[in-house]
Amino acid sequence: MLRRTLATLGASALLAGAALAATSAPASAAGSCTLSAPAKVSIWKPYQAITLRASGPCTYGSGWGGWYGYHSTQGLSAVASFDHTSSTIWDVYDWDDLGGYTWRPGGAYDSSYNELSQNTVSTSVRLHGAAWISSYRSGSIVTLTGTALTYSPTTEGFVKRAYAAGQFQYRDRGTSTWRTLVGVKTGSNGTVRFQLRNNVARDYRFATYSTPTIWDVVSASTTR
Q1: CB neighbours (10 Å) of residue 55?
Q2: Is CB count within 10 Å lower at the N or C end of the chain?
Q3: What ranges in the chain are assigned the alpha helix state H?
């Protein structure tokens, strides 16, 4: 409810700014105002101040520009307003809706109240993923253990991720190419173990796949 209230207040301010600037604006666009927003946002703590930037005549003098942030299923969820400035803050909380956001034009004008064209930008918001790997060797048998984690808004920290799909990867020593060793999935405890027979030392790592709500991640490497 609080987020919706803030979005409504922000939208009202955006509309008020557009109405004020539009009083002397001609019908045709005389330039462009461009929004730059991150393609990906990773939720890893309760609050983040995400900087959004604009460029063009809307950012100096008495220029003005604004965009509405629409969530793919929840509708209007954020507002970005640039009142003769080139940057603004998007307040992102870990209880915000995950998924895709589309920043749509809300009006932009230069110092002479000429209307400016605007772009549309997309941002995907998901939880931050993490991965660990441990290994040991007994003769020619190498045992790999991968652990998948994800940020939890409930605990405001990282928890083990059950049934996370991913893969163990290997790299021959002295090379830079990582190759798939085997596809795996963690159990209910967030870990997965795999054994292989190999007499030659290699680098290994554990990687998990992205989901609609969690970003993919690759662990640090281990050598056995």
Answers
A1: 14
A2: N
A3: 2-22
Least Cα distance to 29 among 60, 65, 53, 61 occurs for: 65
Alpha-carbon torsion, ordered 97, 101, 104, 109, to 10 deg:
80
What is the CB-side half-sphere exposure of residue 17 using CA atoms within 13 A? 25
* Amino acid 5: pLDDT: 41
More confident residue, 12 or 71: 71
Within 10 Å of residue 182's Cβ, how many Cβ atoms? Answer: 12
How many C-beta atoms surround the C-beta of residue 136 within 10 A? 11
Does the structure show a pLDDT above 90 at 26? no
Residues 9-15: what's their mean pLDDT? 48
Closest by CA position to 32, among listed 122, 112, 110: 110
Residue 30: predicted pLDDT: 67
Q: What are phi and psi of 28, to 5 degrees?
A: -100, 145
CA angle 164, 187, 181 (to 5 degrees): 65
Residues 43, 147, 131: CA angle, nearest 5 degrees: 40
Which amino acid would we find at residue 169? Q
**Residue reference for tokens 């554990």:** 206
